[in-house]
Design goal:
Length: 224
């Protein structure tokens, strides 16, 4: 992810950083309802992509007030999605880190209440992704040439059935999974490549707006 905010905090050399995020977490109904808020998703995404931070730093990064940042951090902590990083900060400044590397949610699986909770969650994910893309767009004029040359802002349209769209999505996910495994092996061997930074690949699959008749099912309000 790229944006026009201050750089992410780096661990103090005198204080060892806590262990990194654990394996992926499968979102249950409670977690889906907790994350049915685009700002909360962006807070969690920032901690996963940029490392541990405080409410003040989160507020500066996302352009919100510190009180709002603190509130959303507390909610994420109560839901078990972030944890306090020990040995850092003071009584008035708490450091938080993501508890997991990535969230997993299968909109086609799970019990009915979980599938319904996935509707407002998916809505929030789309809004949060649009906001991150907007902030990335603001940085395009400032990108170094080597990063601009490999960046992509594309839009492809295919005529597909739901079944074929699912197959295309699965194939693309397999490509990302393979490259993530390669990156993890390099990380475990402590051999990061020179110039390596977090790179976001936004991937969406949805019918062209207006092409599909709306479902009779209405999403929950999902406000939290």
């Amino acid at each position: 992810m790229t944006d026009d905010s201050p750089p992410a905090p780096t661990p103090s050399p005198s204080v060892p950083s806590a262990p990194g995020p654990a394996a992926d977490v499968r979102l249950d109904t409670a977690a889906l309802r907790l994350l049915a808020h685009p700002l909360r998703i962006n807070v969690l995404t920032m901690l996963r992509q940029r490392g541990p931070s405080t409410a003040t730093r989160v507020a500066d990064e996302l352009g919100i007030n510190p009180g709002s940042a603190s509130y959303h951090l507390r909610r994420l902590a109560l839901g078990g999605l972030i944890v306090e990083e020990p040995g850092r900060g003071t009584g008035r400044e708490r450091w938080w880190r993501a508890a997991h590397r990535q969230s997993q949610h299968d909109p086609a699986g799970g019990p009915p209440e979980e599938r319904e909770a996935g509707r407002p969650y998916a809505h929030a994910v789309a809004l949060a992704g649009a906001d991150r893309l907007r902030r990335a767009a603001d940085e395009i004029p400032l990108l170094p040439r080597e990063w601009l040359d490999v960046s992509a802002y594309a839009d492809f349209v295919l005529r597909l059935t739901p079944e074929r769209a699912g197959r295309v999505k699965a194939e693309i996910f397999e490509v990302f999974a393979r490259h993530r495994q390669e990156a993890e092996r390099a990380e475990q061997a402590e051999r990061p490549a020179e110039g390596e930074v977090p790179v976001a690949f936004q991937f969406q699959v949805f019918p062209v707006p207006g092409a599909v008749a709306p479902s009779a099912a209405r999403p929950d309000a999902g406000g939290v």
